Amino acid sequence: MAQKFEKKEITKKSKNFSRWYTDVILKAELADYSPVKGCMVIRPYGFALWENIKSALDGMIKSAGVENAYFPLFIPESFLKKEKEHVKGFSPELAVVTIGGGERLKEKLIIRPTSETVMYSMFAKWIESWRDLPLLINQWCNIVRWEKRTYLFLRTTEFLWQEGHTCHATHVEAKKEAGRALKMYAKFYQDHLAIPGFMGKKSEAEKFPGAADTFAYEMLMPDGKVLQGCTSHDLGQNFAKPFKIQFQNKKGKLENVWQTCWGLSTRSIGALIMAHGDDNGLVLPPKVTPIKAVIVPVLGKNNRDVLAFAKKVQNEIEKKDSEFSGRVEIWDSPQQTFGWKANEAEIRGIPLAIPVGIKEVKDKKVTISRRDGNGKKNESSSLNNVGETVERMLGKMQKSLLREGEKFLRENTHEVKNYQEFKKVMREKRGVIRTFWCEDPKCEAKIKEETKATSRLLPLDAKEEKGKCIYCGKKTVHRWLFAQAY
Ligand SMILES: [Zn+2]
Questions:
Q1: In the predicted model, what is the mean pLDDT of residues 287-309?
Q2: How much distance in Å is there from the Cα of 446 to the middle of ligand 1?
Q3: Which of 65, 203, 287, 318 has the highest Cβ tally under 10 A?
């Protein structure tokens, strides 16, 4: 490995948000641009983060009785055409294989932009009676949707995700499952990634192609735009009919199944970076960080004592049962300076850093610094208690990141009285606007044209109220959330 003494420079978050975002990803070595335009390479540190996200979410998916499976990357073109809205929605972004093994294929193969059609052709084969229901399947895989403009983690031609697909005997059950998946994602974002957000239903214009209803979890980013963190769809019988996914009910009659699908992707890493990072780099929530604490020895005359003490600190932390999965590392390489290592730990967003020098060895005490605290949340601990202190500090940090996010979301969610005010908010500070909308797509299109904001969600907990559409003045009953979106 080349010597690395040079301090890595990162554009300030407040100065240029999108440059900062890219700088952090490249310098924290989460990902890199690839030789294939539109695609990215996820580097080991970024992939370790994805593996932690995946493992936590996979546990939640399995505990709901959903089983993992794997379906082919290729989809026959005719499958995709079976559901009209679906093919219409996806055709601009499809990658198509026309030649295989040196020969022109009789039927073109589509590289999956999502797996509904290939899965549902199999579900039709597997489901015969009510006894086969519910069918609950999830797949972790890669997806290809052709993109012209790339934004690392947020918009790339190929990305990784999980897609859950379920079949039910009744619409009530399917709706319940779509709701369960949405709440699971919200809980995952809040408990693990420490990002608050809104749960709700999408407008007609923002709906998934082929869904009866689409639900999403949306989070406000520091630049005032919102990011859709996942989706959950009630598919009704829109796919069951063309794919003939039928079951014999208890009375012996054939019926179409009711379906849902739901997904979360590597985009969640983009959310994580934007929501918590600062001028010095990443800030990773303890629940998903690949490294929870780094011990940095101050090397000098008494290296042996210092390194032995560093090892003791590591052992003390590692022997404590922990709800945080990350590793505890000692960065003892003599090739880099202490300052470089401290800087690197910051850029990589490692929650806790523990410098160890001869003073610490003598006192049998360490000072632990918290990545999110600007030095104000540091704590000292004796060697004997270091395991407990670390665990407690990680717990506090996890909670504090969510609390900070909640405060930001509260302060940047606005109720506006009229369209003038709406425009002013979008022009000057952005954020989320909660306001009455008549649900007419024409009003939504005009609002988008004039303010760049679109309807994001009808919140799940929205009450019926009397109001007038912010754009056309027509009487309506619901306040929707509007924002500019990623
Ligand atoms: Zn209107």
A1: 94
A2: 10
A3: 287
